[in-house]
Design goal:
By secondary structure, the protein is α+β, with helices and mostly antiparallel strands. Helix content is 21%, strand content 30%.
Length: 135
């Protein structure tokens, strides 16, 4: 059994995918980019501003899935330019300041809407039976 997770507090999917899928105590969050959910437009700004928006989008979806940053197991970060790693990492580190999740970071030639960063997440959610978190 799987559940589609959707919230108006994060950007609408721009293709045939869900914001997130929850199944068996896990939530798989689709890659988030720097789109403002209020306008559905890419925000202006550098890697710092875009990473901040991405993290806010991830937080909104985690909340809709009844999860949190503390329950994140793994992230994948896609950067348009690896020279932006330090600036992205500074913002990312503010959100994952203790016991950060496993992570991969890769440079890619192009991202949707020509953004500078995209991040996807796998996290724990309340278990399907009993509503308790996996530990």
């Amino acid at each position: 059994m799987r559940d589609v997770i959707s919230t108006p507090d994060a950007p609408k999917a721009i293709g045939p995918y869900s914001q997130a899928i929850s199944a068996k105590g896990l939530v798989f969050i689709s890659g988030q980019v720097a789109i403002d959910p209020a306008t559905q437009q890419v925000i202006e700004g550098d890697i710092t501003a875009q990473t901040e928006r991405v993290m806010k989008n991830l937080l909104a979806i985690l909340s809709a899935a009844e999860s949190s940053l503390e329950k994140v197991l793994r992230c994948t970060v896609f950067l348009k330019n690896m020279n932006d790693f330090a600036a992205m990492n500074a913002v990312y580190g503010k959100y994952f300041d203790s016991s950060p999740p496993a992570r991969s970071t890769v440079e890619v030639s192009r991202l949707p809407k020509d953004v500078l960063v995209e991040i996807d997440v796998i996290a724990l959610t309340p278990a399907d039976e009993g509503g308790t978190f996996y530990k």
